[in-house]
Predict the 3D structure of the following.
Amino acid sequence: MPFAETEIVLVNNPITLQPSGWMYSCSLDQFLERFDFSIKHSDKVQPTSKRVERIIDSLTYKVYRYMNRGLFERDKMMFKLMVALKIMVVNADLTSEDVLVFLKAGGSLDKNNERPNPFNKWMGEKAWLNAIQLTRHGFGRDQNPIFRDLTDLLQRNELGWRQWFDQSEPENCPVPEYEDRIVMERTIGPFIRLVLVRALREDRVGIASAQFVDRQLGPKYTAPVSDTITDIYEECSSRKPVLYLLSAGTDPTNMIDELAKRKKKFPTDKVSMGEGQEKVAREKNGAAFINGGWVILQNCHLGTDYMNEVEETLMKTPEIHTNYRLWITCEITSRFPIGLLQMCIKVTLEPPAGLKASLHRTYTTMIIQETLDKVDHEKWRTLLYTVAVLHSIVQERRKFGAIGWCVPYEFNNSDLDASLLFLEKHLSSTILVGLPLTWNTIQYMIAEVQYGGRITDDLDRDLINTYAAKWFCDEIFKPTFCFNTHSADFNYQIPADALDISYYRDYIETIPPVDSPLIFGLHPNADITYRIKEAAEMLTTIVETQPKESSAAAGKSVDEQVKESATDLLGKLPPDLVEEVFRAQIQKMKGPPRMEERGFGAPLHIFLFQELQRLQNIIDIVRKNLDNLVMAIDGTVVMTVELLEDLNCVFDGRVPRGWTHDASGAEISWLQPTLGIWAAGLTDRYTQLNSWLEFGRKEMKSYWITGFTNAQGFLTGIRQEVTRQHKRDQWALDEVVTHTEVLTLDTPDRVRELPEEGQNIHGLFIEGGKWNRLEGKLEESEAKKLQMNMPVIYVTAVEVKTLKAINTSSGPFPAFNAAVYKYPRRNDRYLIFRLLLRSGEHHPHHWRLRGVCLVAQTD
């Protein structure tokens, strides 16, 4: 690959990564330094072509190491994958369309216009659409349609494909029907395998990508590497500062001071940037320029104006002492000057991930020998370890996304420090004077005050209280106590009481480096959730950074492809809903039984009218936007910045923002990851509302609750109607609440009769657990099934006093109060309502730690 292409691929790629891309900026000078090094130090061989190959290999690896050092962990695999793919495209082994098929798969397909999924018992709708897309694509410069018969082979050999699909590591298993063909494709075979894994098993994309990079670039690109602070010092100079990109809980100051002691430059001058600190920093730097001292500017994201001055000073000061060194620490910010970024050696600093690393850090920095000796009692040391585990758990649980915490809170050492201080005082006033521990006080202070002070979501507050209830009780003083309530390969116990801190540190070293979801109270499926989340974020970021270009083999430009897609979408749009017409139809509709009101006198008819208005507004927006896009491509109207963004969205298979949000940022429709799924949702919503409008309630035996833009309004309408039906019983609306009953009917087609009061709903999915339809109780999830369909649910309204009586008769344990969300992204904004589910053989605490909830959409 030519040198110029190498520079573009390796140096420019990280700049496109968001949200950290700005801080990854590099300069041509930095690339040329690596280039000169490769010329001088690469193997001197003949002929010239071999010599050039060695230089390119050396240059590629040197630039990779230089860039990799300044990338956060979440971006490193993304960067290597982008480099490997770009090299193959530049070498003409792949086309840009091949890369887009890997990134987008079947995201642009509308399920309503494709063959129905015959494998819905084991393969999701998304994977099926991905498989259909693969049948339509030819790979490489020869446009080899290797997967042309994929869907047919899936049906002929369903057992073999299901076995491959269910494998723990499908990327390492022979692919049914295709293994020989993939092996024969020596150049693009690894990529074809990667595409298939991405299409059918998205949770394995991260591991499969690492294997692909290993085969394409070499094992040294996937091997763990680290640069010591000594290596970084050898590379920096008086005019080449070191910039540490920080994440929560990291600080390189101690490392720099240790190096300064070895280099006889201690003490270093430190300035924590903020308001009024520019003058101090200017004085420290000015003195260090002369005497060759070291200066550490901390938290420079709070002093970006001074960073502009630093850039100019380093460039224009004629004489700077050769021993002068500038160390900068900064969080991610787009205000950092680009010139200084391109001068600096960038290094990322992240705390080690995992429970073991977190506990090790706690027992090295926060809990030391002096801490153990503060209270001379064995229960003090047990409580210390318990709080340390809780501190690590609440931080590490964030990696599981919404099933971990609804909101990813920034818990830090101050929460742990405050909890330890409280425990010290509490033990001094209880155990040390002969009184028992007050567990209610301990639970409240730690869960509600110290850690709970950061929590804003009610479900998250329930979660932290559940941890406190399970771990701050007399059980922890028993030798058989385990933090994981289910048996696992490693049981997380509290070390036997010891007076020496080294005993606890030795025990922490025995903890596995990879955490089992069981220690968090989660199901093993949570690992799959975590991997899918990582893969989706990586693929989405790469899609957004891809250049909008088209290979000659495709025969169509980007504009032509987008125009074709826009025209196709316009043809599939539902007809307009005329307000005068549907208003007249609603006025003639009958109300529910035992209600005299007709038309707009029935609350659910008002709800229907409002839903039709909202849907028509969405249809108007989409139709107008697509018409303008087609005209802009034809050149009859101006291609504005907004239309260009919409064009890129349609090309990438993403939903234009104007279709989902208004100018104020308020959501006006529904959110979906791909354009195809969103368009199918538009058709399905129109079908439901039109059926309700045309045939009335007699045909609506169950409502698809996902299809409503305001599902809470539907539930409110039910409560209002049921209250009016009980007018003779003198029910008051403010004394009535929603009540639900999960039926045994698995699909709405099996509903035979309309309920006298209330309505049936369907379309919900359960996460974190499984609903036993026949026995009517919660059970553990099935392996590899992250979301499962819920049966039809009957929704009505009852008086509060009646609901209390129902709650006490739900089995050996209280009913679990499950939240129902509009999207898997759990927060109060998307909360629809709550419903009670029988807990079965487990206490509600168990399901709360499992992260059980219901969602109306799986994406």
Notes: DSSP finds 33 helices and 16 strands in the chain. The longest helix spans residues 603-634.
